[in-house]
UniProtKB/TrEMBL annotation, chains A, B:
Keywords: Kinase, Transferase. Residues 7-328 form the DhaK domain. GO terms for molecular function: glycerone kinase activity. Its EC number is 2.7.1.29. This is Dihydroxyacetone kinase.
Amino acid sequence: MKKIINQTDDIVIQMGKGMALAHPDKIEFEEKYKIFKRKTINPKKVALISGGGSGHEPAHAGYVGTGMLDAAVAGDVFASPSSVQVYHAIKQVTGEAGCLLIVKNYSGDCMNFDTAAEMAEEDDLKVLSVYVNDDVAVKDSLYTIGRRGVAGTVLVEKIAGAAAERGDSLENVQLLAQKTIEQVKSIGVALTSCTVPAKGTPTFDLGSDEIEFGVGIHGEPGIERRKSMTSHALAVEMLDLLIGELGLTDEDEIVVMVNGLGGTPLQELYVFNHDVRAILSSKNIHVYDTLVGNYMTAIDMAGLSLTVLKLTDELKALYDAPADTIAYHK
Amino acid sequence: MKKIINQTDDIVIQMGKGMALAHPDKIEFEEKYKIFKRKTINPKKVALISGGGSGHEPAHAGYVGTGMLDAAVAGDVFASPSSVQVYHAIKQVTGEAGCLLIVKNYSGDCMNFDTAAEMAEEDDLKVLSVYVNDDVAVKDSLYTIGRRGVAGTVLVEKIAGAAAERGDSLENVQLLAQKTIEQVKSIGVALTSCTVPAKGTPTFDLGSDEIEFGVGIHGEPGIERRKSMTSHALAVEMLDLLIGELGLTDEDEIVVMVNGLGGTPLQELYVFNHDVRAILSSKNIHVYDTLVGNYMTAIDMAGLSLTVLKLTDELKALYDAPADTIAYHK
Amino acid sequence: MSTLSKAELFQMLNHMAEVIIENEVPFCELDAVAGDGDFGMSIAKGFKVLMAQWETLNRESIGEFLADCSMVISENCGGASGPIWGAGFKGASKATTGLQSLTKAEFASMLESAAELIQKRGKANRGDKTLLDALLPCVDALNAHKSDENSFKMFLQTGAMAATEGAEATKKMIASRGRASYVGERSLEFPDAGAMALSIIFTAISGQVLD
Amino acid sequence: MSTLSKAELFQMLNHMAEVIIENEVPFCELDAVAGDGDFGMSIAKGFKVLMAQWETLNRESIGEFLADCSMVISENCGGASGPIWGAGFKGASKATTGLQSLTKAEFASMLESAAELIQKRGKANRGDKTLLDALLPCVDALNAHKSDENSFKMFLQTGAMAATEGAEATKKMIASRGRASYVGERSLEFPDAGAMALSIIFTAISGQVLD
Ligand SMILES: Nc1ncnc2c1ncn2[C@@H]1O[C@H](COP(=O)(O)OP(=O)(O)O)[C@@H](O)[C@H]1O
Ligand SMILES: Nc1ncnc2c1ncn2[C@@H]1O[C@H](COP(=O)(O)OP(=O)(O)O)[C@@H](O)[C@H]1O
Ligand SMILES: [Mg+2]
Ligand SMILES: [Mg+2]
Ligand SMILES: [Mg+2]
Ligand SMILES: [Mg+2]
């Protein structure tokens, strides 16, 4: 493993401090519970908290700021923060309007965020949660814990953030976040594994002509291992899955996010976006806005994910609202 | 080689189109001469053009927009655009106020941009040039063509862009760009090679515990091959070089740019920034602003570069001016 | 020996922490096959903090000690392991409040209570390919043998064998809880990381108990 | 044969383009050692366009044809190669305006004029470790032998040998022009990519000329 780091134990704290030093106008970093939060908290509005394991930078600290999150709680690399950490984040940013937790649907995250919510409720704080499960690589079955939350989470944070900033009630912010979750789907593909610093070796091995189709943002296996494909062929398959899941027709308007997984050159993301657009335009599906970049990464994995959000008028108005964070401007 | 691309021949055109499709409000892409330009050109202000080989995304197309460039000309991956391409870019965006070419100091780029300037002058356009040479890895000797231009170019574009937007004369914009060039220094380090798509194999090989200290943004060799180092040790050496070159003392105020070379996780950039700040603060050098991210990449290379710009009051005012481009907001 | 003293139990827990810390990398590797490869790291992290705070834990009774352990583990183990192992220790503490030593029966019900709280917290059932598939057979075996005349060591080794068999059997299961559940049938043929860890831990600590 | 007809020269240039295109990858590899590894790609790209536009080039005279080649190459070869090879073809065309065939002396001065414009454009000198270190010795050899009684083929082969020796000698030079100049002494022991290419091209085309 070659990485530009010091001791692996301290990586999240050093990163957090390095981030706060780079963006002193946007965020504060509290080392003890690894909480990133806005410089000034507005206690009148619904507070929005997300977080999860580290290694997905810029998520979620990069989305703390006006129009998006109030706080992001960081676990170790790929490991949910503890309930105690999340509890302290809730305590620090929640006012009378209450707090919404935006949780990516992993068993560890769900258990920790849920326990934290229970603890905060014991302190008479109003806490609701939503669970993002946009990854269509995973079968949605009664017998599993459901689908994983991946890059679509950023769009949920954007839209719920706009609702909270507008002054919506906690219940309404939750409802809008939930509506967004229902309209957002993602699928990823890996060209290489990621390497968790503490482990020091790649999580999985891929042959020099293989890709992992449907990979998760922690390097979890996906739908299947495949031979390498062209950008266009990948775009066809990935869009097919998403269009099918969302039931898109030529009436629909969507937001497209082409998300790099950390080790992918921007060059490839734009080439892929070109293919995505050619296919969408052949189907007369209208693209309202496009995001291309590293929004939700898997450390140093080469590969990308494609996210589609189907807009309704209600969601569009919120999508258009301003946002000013480290990694997302509007 | 595994990459998300189609034919390697077409990669720049597909990328360019993919980029314009993603940012229709910010840029236009002209396929014939591979020119990215602003949607509306203000003929009264000095036009700013940069460009060079592709593979450094988001440079330079990502810096086209208010407060920065008017056009960026793209060559093939790591190959200067032709003089004819640059000439057409000049023709398309230059008005009565003239045009400044911001050229990274490589023999190919210099020859092509110079020839283009000569061609445009034959059409009675006013064209001046500056050559960015911020890479301190290269010895500056009378016997070579001088130092390479790397990530510092982005800051030159920022400051010259602000001067042009303010309405400065061509001569003055050139002078300010030149002053910036004199105050900006960079040094890079590679953990892995990049892979040029058309070639299909890595440009160089590094052992599993080796780094290339002083690497160029095309994978050119640097100062020397070394054993891997911690982030902190790297920061010490890189800063020593830059501080020495700029003659920084504890009176000085600087802008720091921690630039990922394309395959580096953001995690590492922030850890590195943390080390950079610890060292700077021990030397009482004041950091006015910090940029952390992928600003000038070498396709998929893992590694980073560190750039320091020494501010004067004159440069600071321009640095503070707004900018609104795909990859840089202020 | 037919009871385990408080000191012996603390010694056993200390050894358990050592085993977990030593196995950080192998435990990660077990999780890498169908999960996300961080299990060893997540769990070792909490037990390292536990070791560091060892001398400060409340030693009034076994239950009190385990309750303190549960707090440290919940707060410091990452991922799913924090809530799961935290719940386990909390369950264990509930069954041992005030106790200064454990009979075989008390030991068995301590683990049974641990398994109950893990089930409550994680909502997993037998066969879901989690550490419960090692823990529940272990509890069953201990309950079946809690009145045997054997040594405490043999009693624990019976539990360890059952845990090992249970862990082995997870190879034939398709995960439906935890990260491995996302890969469906691709988790077949590989054991669950948490179940394997439990079998390794139990085997190690039962081996060290004096006859 | 003591002159080269227009058709023979066009045939030779066509073959040159083929050699360049065939060697795209090896030329990149030569450039990767101390440069940026794109030389083969940069140069092949222009010559591919040249081949595609082959039938549309102005065939009135050798000079006119070479001038057209120069335009295509300047516009379509990437990197330093566009200006350098464009200048070379422009120089060659200047020395051959209106000519329908070339004597050995005319061939030699065509290459001499090519070298001059390359020097003017790129400001490199002998010993700077560029393609000039293959081209200038080649021109010298051709000038020295332009009055020999040998065949045109032998004449060209003399030039090719000089180019090859010159390219070989670049191993001992430290680059001071082009991207390899940034690495200073680390360019030692490796030949210059452009010089090697010139030697390969010249050797190949001289081998194909009829006796
Ligand atoms: N809901 C659950 N109930 C019981 N055990 C679980 C549950 N989810 C996961 N586990 C156990 O936790 C182990 C994985 O732990 P860890 O890697 O720390 O969590 P994560 O899945 O968050 O990365 C699995 O191998 C499994 O034994
Ligand atoms: N100033 C120059 N004069 C003559 N030849 C040059 C000059 N600079 C570079 N070259 C030649 O060009 C070759 C490299 O071409 P290429 O790889 O296309 O350019 P770049 O250096 O821009 O990547 C070198 O090997 C050298 O022979
Ligand atoms: Mg995990
Ligand atoms: Mg080049
Ligand atoms: Mg795990
Ligand atoms: Mg080159």
